[in-house]
Amino acid sequence: MAWCPFATRMELQPESDAQPAIRPTQFIVHSIIAPWTAKRTYEYWRDSTNLESHFGLGYAGDLGQFIGTETRADANAAANRRPDGTGAVSIETASNTKGTDPWTDDQVEMLIRLGVWLHQRHGIPLRICRTHDDPGYGYHRLHSAWAVSGTACPGDARVRQFREVVFPGIVRRATVQIPPPSAPTSPAPEQETDMAIAKVDESNPVDVDLADNEWTTLAFTDAVIHSGPRQLVGPTYVQLTFAPGTQAFVTGRFILTNVDGTGASGYGDLGEFDALRLPQFLHNHDVPAGKTLRFQVKARTDNGTTSKLTHRVVTGDYLVPAGQ
Ligand SMILES: [Zn+2]
Q1: How far is the CA of 77 from the centre of ligand 1 (A)?
Q2: Which stretches make up the N-acetylmuramoyl-L-alanine amidase domain (predicted)?
Q3: How far is the CA of 228 from the centre of ligand 1 (A)?
Q4: CA of 56 to the centre of ligand 1 (A)
Q5: pLDDT per residue of the chain (324 residues) written in tens, 0 to 9
């Protein structure tokens, strides 16, 4: 049984001892539809109902843990514990009584910290769950199997924050690797001294109609994601959102081109994902001098129709000389 070192332990009994073990493979976030502290949430689970979550998170970032992460909790319907023994770690977060407000900055920060800890402690993979039993990160309404009878939880504002801030934040923080300092006895290569981390973080909500089965280069702010030379820190990450009802399989690829866009060479095609499962694409190679990194997408349908891309995000960290 695992307890998060930066959560306040408020153990629920008898659930903590009586419920079966799980091997945690997912993290699912909820809104509790009450403006409660973590302590008040604990008292509610203790005194009023037994549909508990593993964690509770107040508006001020107060994090309580009620059950160890390797024990089943009851907030996620079929995802609590599957027949193979895997299951979801769940968190209830304070919200207004309609479940319509965004998370506070303190809540966002704690969700990112907890998400990183779950990746490090339990190896939950850094992706959004593509199906109800796919290991990764998600929010309650993402998959219908996670609710008994349908839910809006955690609310539109928080779904947007999850996609654009919380999950990319977990990916970034879990994958940042600062180059080790040079040993004092060896002469330090110039490029390893005084480096700082800078960030690409661009999104574009302008709709794009993708012709069937044709590659299209996407613009975020513009078509260039990185201009070389650029040393990446962790992956650069693209996430795509398609219009509701889209029926297509989506493939992406990162390409290098000359500065003027000519001379394209690809890194290989990535995936063929269901358009409605928030396709995600990661890139991990530094960009050489004189080259630019761009991203292309292709949507394949059964009937030759166009597919409407409604939103796209690219995030990623890279090194720059300090002071720039
Ligand atoms: Zn929920």
Answers
A1: 10
A2: 24-155
A3: 44
A4: 12
A5: 799 999 999 999 888 888 999 999 999 999 999 999 999 999 999 998 878 999 999 999 999 999 999 999 998 888 899 999 999 999 999 999 999 999 999 999 999 999 999 999 999 999 999 889 999 999 999 998 998 877 899 999 999 999 989 999 999 888 865 554 444 444 444 444 466 777 888 888 788 999 999 999 998 888 899 999 888 866 788 989 999 899 999 999 999 999 888 888 888 888 788 898 888 888 878 899 999 999 999 999 999 999 999 989 898 878 776 655
Q: What φ, ψ does residue 284 adopt, rounded to 5°?
A: -130, 15
Q: What is the CA radius of gyration of the chain?
A: 22
For 114-172, give the secondary structure using H, E and C. HHHHHHHHHCCCCCECCCCCCCEEEEHHHCHHHCCCCCCCCCHHHHHHHHHHHHHHHHH
Tell me how far apart the 2 most distant CA atoms of the chain are, in Å: 66
Ordered by where they begin, the domains of the chain are 8-175 (3.40.80.10), 193-321 (2.60.120.40)
Opening angle at CA 165, ends 24 and 127, nearest 5: 35
CA of 179 from ligand 1 middle (Å) equals: 40
CA–centroid distance, residue 34 to ligand 1 (Å): 12
293: three-class secondary structure by DSSP: strand
The pair of structure tokens assigned to 83 is 């027949």
Distance 281 CA to ligand 1 centre (A): 27
CB of 82 closer than 8 Å to CB of 24: no
Q: Using the mean position of ligand 1's atoms as its centre, give its distance from the Cα of residue 78 in Å.
A: 13
CA–centroid distance, residue 225 to ligand 1 (Å): 36
CA dist 163 and 159 (Å) reads 6
- 172 Cα to the center of ligand 1, angstroms: 25
Rounded Cα distance between 240 and 228, Å, is: 24
d(CA 117, CA 178): 18
